[in-house]
Design a protein that fits this description.
The protein is an alpha+beta fold and 291 residues long. The chain folds into 2 domains: 128 residues, Roll (Diaminopimelate Epimerase, Chain A, domain 1); 156 residues, Roll (Diaminopimelate Epimerase, Chain A, domain 1), CATH 3.10.310. It has 6 helices and 18 strands. It has an 18-stranded mixed β-sheet that branches. Helix 1 links the parallel strand 2 and strand 3. Helix 3 packs across helix 5.
């Protein structure tokens, strides 16, 4: 079997920036083992498999090397840009069927390079977590964390942990045993690794800077995490840690893969209706997957 596919660098306007994702078209017939094997073959964090939907314009399946997840941010952006590249979009406003529900998408072409705007679902605020437990996962001190970490999802659950400085962010080192204990306790929620954020951008125009350290079989660090950015934005706005609902989120700069997203939290702090995440991308490669 042959499947058309594109490799898209998402949340960047340059090749080799942001976060890469391979998008495989008309591939909903592939089994889970084949999808996981393809992700491992690419060494990417995630890949998507897209096809027809009965309830939206397209259906998208998201895979890590370890298995399928309901939703992911940078692969959503990559999928839309791949569909645009292949002239498959019915218009500049579409919907995607995902495991987290229907995701509305807008494509803004007013700036020359297409900008994809996804509206992630209203956040679900889960359990709060002892700062000491989260600090142990990152190999830092609990006093390095601002406030109380909490599991938040706008499609995929992450534990959001705000740290005091770039210095703390740089010192993070994933500790496997505390992480395993944390994920075992949160297995029913399907919680991912903690998402670490500072309230200072990596550049002068950024408002936040984040890291996501990952456990095998995934790559050790994700360059840009759009789903976690949505959860992080909801957390920061809900707890008044940011003054404006519109801000610039940055990630990946220390990996040599700088990524950036425009973020807008929808609704008041106690009644958030959703989070809009916008970014550009670069079509790096196109080809045929032969299985």
């Amino acid at each position: 079997m042959e499947y058309q596919c594109d490799w898209i660098d998402a949340f960047t306007d340059q090749p080799f920036g942001g976060n890469g994702c391979a998008v495989v078209h008309d591939a909903l017939d592939l089994g889970e083992d084949q999808c996981r094997a393809f992700v491992r073959e690419t060494s990417l964090t995630e890949c998507t498999f897209v096809g027809a939907s009965q309830v939206a314009d397209f259906r998208v399946r998201y895979f890590l090397a370890g298995g399928e997840i309901p939703f992911a941010g940078h692969p959503t952006l990559a999928t839309v840009l791949s569909l645009l590249h292949r002239e498959k979009l019915p218009g500049l406003r579409i919907t995607l069927e995902t495991g987290a529900g229907i995701i509305p998408i807008e494509i803004d072409q007013s700036f020359g390079q297409p900008r994809v705007i996804m509206t992630q679902i209203a956040p679900e605020f889960g359990p709060k977590v002892d700062p000491a437990n989260i600090a142990a996962i990152g190999g830092i001190d609990a006093r390095d964390i601002i406030g109380t970490p909490q599991i938040v999802s706008t499609g995929l659950p992450f534990c959001i942990a705000v740290v005091k400085s770039h210095d703390v962010l740089r010192r993070l080192a994933l500790q496997p045993k505390p992480l395993a204990a944390f994920q075992k306790a949160g297995a029913a929620l399907g919680v991912m690794e903690p998402f670490w954020v500072t309230l200072q951008g990596a550049t002068d125009i950024g408002d936040t800077f984040s890291r996501l350290l990952m456990a095998p079989p995934n790559p050790p660090e994700d360059p840009f995490t759009g789903s976690a950015t949505g959860a992080m934005a909801a957390y920061l706005w809900h707890y008044a840690l940011i003054e404006e609902r519109n801000f610039i989120a940055e990630q990946g700069h220390w990996l040599g893969r700088p990524g950036q997203a425009q973020v807008q939290v929808l609704g008041p702090q106690k009644q958030i209706a959703g989070v809009r995440i916008a970014g550009t991308g670069h079509v790096l490669m196109s080809g045929t997957l032969m299985l």
